Amino acid sequence: MFNIIGVLSINPNSSEKLQELLKPLLEASRSDSGCISYECKPDALNKDTYLFLETWQDDASLDAHMKTTHFKTFVEAVDSILEAPLELHKILLD
Predict the structure, then answer these.
(1) What CATH number corresponds to the domain at position 6?
(2) Angle, nearest 10°, between helix axes 69-78 and 15-29?
(3) Domain around 10
(4) Number of structural domains found in the chain
(5) What is the pLDDT of residues 53-72, one digit of tens each?
(6) pTM score, two decimals?
């Protein structure tokens, strides 16, 4: 089991558009096999930055998630409001 922290930096004044894109992604991802938790929250210290906080059972589950239609649709749509590429960090749990 492991956590993923994704750092999403968006263009100023794009938070409303991001919320529209996030809703279907969050709902669908929480039902993905091997997904223990899946959230996206604003960073209180950095305006226009959002943090994905995810917990996955194993690498196969995360790999499958990244191939889903809901994930691919989000990645394609969010690209137009990104300030910087998405950063991913993986934390292994004991």
Answers:
(1) 3.30.70.100
(2) 170
(3) 2-92
(4) 1
(5) 999 999 999 999 999 999 99
(6) 0.93
